[in-house]
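Student: Hello, beginner here. Can you help me understand the protein record under this note? Any guidance would be welcome.
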Amino acid sequence: MNELTELSYALDTFYLLICGVLVMWMAAGFAMLEAGLVRAKNTAEILTKNIALFAIAGTLYLLVGYHLMYASPDGGVLPHLGVLLGGENGVDTVLAGGVDAPYYAQRADYFFQVVFVATAMSIVSGAVAERMKLWAFLAFAVVMTGLIYPVSGYWTWGGGWLAAAGFSDYAGSGIVHMAGAAAALAGVLILGPRKGKYGRDGSIYAIPGANLPLATLGTFILWMGWFGFNGGSELKVSDIGSANSVAQVLVNTNAAAAGGVVAALTVAKLWFRKADLTMTLNGALAGLVAITAEPLAPSAAGAALIGAVGGAIVIAAIVALDKLRVDDPVGAISVHGVVGIWGLLAVPLSNADATFGAQLLGIVGIFAWVFGASLIVWLMLKAAMGIRVSEEEEYEGVDLTECGMEAYPEFSVTGK
C-alpha cells in the first residue's frame, strides 16, 4: 500500500467502527423505549432481555452467523457452514465498495454487521413483552442471531439469490427491520395477547406504559443511532464521492424521521382528537425505517415525504393489528414490519436501478423464511419448555417471577 491508500484504509476502518458504535447505542434506545412502554412491574425483565440479547447476538454471530452470511457462494440459496471470522492474524481486509476502492479491516466489517443482527433481535423483545418467559426468549435469540437472520442476510447483502435477482435494500428496511418484525409476529401469534387487553365482546383496552419520558429518551437515542445505521452503510468515507453520499444519507435520514413525526402527530390529532405521544414516537421510528431501504437516492424533500407516509401508515397498522387481536405492546410489528415493506416498495421511486418486481420478491422471500423458521422455533420452544408465564405470574409482573427484583421498588408495599 502507498501512503494515500494506507490513510484511506485507516479512515474507512475508523469510520465503520464509529458507525458501529452508534448502532450499538441503538440497543440503549430500544431498551429505554421498551422499558417506558411496558408497565412498571415488567421493567427489570425487559431490560434484562435487551442486554442479554445483545450479548447472545455478539456471541452467535461471531461463532457462526458472520461466516454464514458472508462466506457463501454468490447467487446461492444454501449458505456454507463455518465458524469465526477466518484468519485470526488481525490484518484481514475486505473491499470497501468495489475493486478499485480502498480496503478496510475485516474486523471492522464484522463489528458493523453484528450490531445489525442485534437490532433485528431487539425488535422481537418489545412485541412479546409482559407475558413471555425470559429463558424461552433467550433460547429463540440463539437461533435467530446464529441462523435465521444470517441465512436471509446471505441471500441479500451476502450476495445470494435475492441479490442476484436485483433486490435492493441499502441499510436494511427489510433485511433487518422487516425480518425482526416477522420473527416477532410469529412469536406473538403463538403467545397470545396479554390478559385484559381484549374483551370477549371485541372491546380493546389500552394498557399504558409506565414511563413515557423514558420512552421519549429511547426514541431520541434511536434517532441518533440511526445516523450510524444508514450513514455507515455507505461503507466508506475516504473520497469526495463517498463523503458527499454520507452527507446526503444523514440529511435524508433526519428528514424522513421529521416527516414521520409530523405525519403521525397530524393523523393522531385528526383520528383520535389528541396529540398521542406514543403514536408520535412511533411516527419518528416509522420515518426512519421507511428511509432505511434507500436513504441516498431521494432528495431531502423526497425523503421527508417517504418518512411522512411511513408515519401515517404506522398509525393505521397499529389500529388494524389491535382489531385483529394481535397484541404488540410497543407497536414493533407495525413500525418495523408494515413500514419496512413500505420502505422497500419506495426504493424504485427514486432509484432507477431498482424494480418493483425484485423488491416484491425480496419482501416475500425474507418474510416467508424468517416467519416460517421463527414459527417452527417458537412451537418447538413451546413444546419443550413453554413460552408464556402463568396467569398469576403475569398478574404479579415478570420482574419478580423472572428476575427476583423490581425496577421501581419504591412502588411496592413491604413489611418491616
The CA atoms of residues 268 and 363 lie 28 Å apart. The first strand starts at residue 93 and ends at 95. DSSP finds 14 helices and two strands in the chain. Residues 3-411 form a domain with the Ammonium transporter fold fold (CATH 1.10.3430.10).
